[in-house]
Amino acid sequence: MRNKSAYTLLPKTSSAFFIVTILIVLVVFSEVLTADFVMWDDDIIIYKNPNIGKISLERIYWAFTDVDSMMRYNPLTLLSWCATYHFFGHNPFGYHLVNWLLHGLSSGLLFLIIRKALLLLPVPSQSQTKTLFHRNINLIAMLAALFWAIHPLRVEPVSWATDRTYCQAVFFLLLTTFCYIEAVNSETNNKKRYFFLIISALIFYIFSLLSYAIGTTYFIILLIFDVFLFKRIGKNTGWWRSQGAKKVWLEKMIFANPAIWIIVISVIVRINSAGPWSPAVPLSEFGIIDRLMQAFYITVYYIYKPFYPVDLSPYYTTLISFDPISFPFVASAFVFSLLAVFTFVFRKRWPIGLALLLSHIVLLIPVMGLFEHPHFPVDRYSLVSSICLSMLAAIVLINLKNKNLSISLMTVLIIAVSILGWMTVKQVRVWHNSQSLFTHMIETLGNDPYRQHIYWRLGKYFYKNDKEEKAISNFKKTLEINPYHITANRCMAHIEYQKGNLKKTICHWSAQDFYTS
Question: Domains in the chain, please, with CATH?
Fold first, then answer.
């Protein structure tokens, strides 16, 4: 049974901790405000996109009806970029400013959500541990929120203007969660407040789905809340037939309805998408076993990667071409099986473990790449699922009965958050402009042949900034890896033509034609 007395008797959320959480995050990410656009989709999606302009009825219609030019359906983010353009034009400051503010506010919301979740857990009965619970809950919730917010894996979605999609979608998901928790806590005592908050949660959920479809499975998370946190269902035999269960199922159906519609629209958009994006891969080219092993890898990858956030890059080549029975994938399947068995066996003694593992899997389903090959386990995909790790850290700390152990682990968390903050500041500088980003990517790629695609991008950046010699050097590095690379040959042909070297111009055009023929 839900411990309502614990929820109501404890003091209200300290506004000071809420504000401090937001301010710390904004300070750590403050250098994004001086960053430029990067030639990593910012050009295609934002500043060279003819559809991004001042807000008008035509653009609103385009945002909601376009199923051809974009790879994903995200009308509210398109309108958000248009609104930014309305006030800032193509000044990158405005685009980074909104990402920065959204992430700061999301961090504050996560603090509130973690605190509310902790208050819903049973309060320790011993007087000493009860005092520790009361005294430390704000600090623990803040540290857990910061563990998520100022992590190096958050840099990509915050520092990359194009990733407004993720920042905006997550902000509305957190608003959905906050309103839903408040609604359930008002369910018995204040029906009007309950209905108002449930409707608000639904509206924010729709806003999130229309910003980006990373939350299409999030209605299942609300059901997990009902089972493991609120204890609204699952307590007795035949609970699924009870009157209370029917109400819960109806709620979830209401939330599932817009998610299903967005999934259908997203599939249509993915099939019809044009431009530089490849079509969805059929089963004949990427089989069921491949997709399943990829899903195991993704699930385990986002469990351990937050604890080892080094050599971060917008592009990882692990899943470009892989053998599903090779070591990383078999090991991932084995680790996943162990976690699943462990949490299931101990579900009665530690139900929150099963709840967090289920939540982690559910939140990753939209980014597992089940319909994509090649797929890339990029940093932004951890944005939602990593909240589970923060919640786990908070729950472990709040349930410690030994004062010295509690203080020790809290100190460790403070040190960890400080180190992550320092790493985050360094990673933000990687995204300062195209040169810093591409140089960093080349370093992380090592000898991987894919670095050819980064060399030509860096060459193009130098050429546009009147650094012709550096541009030529990078185009040549591309051609050393792939002599028939289309873009590099095309750029070199243009440069040689400008110099009057017709022989070299023809040579580069011929190499390009050989590749395309």
Answer: 4-272+289-430 (no CATH), 449-516 (1.25.40.10)
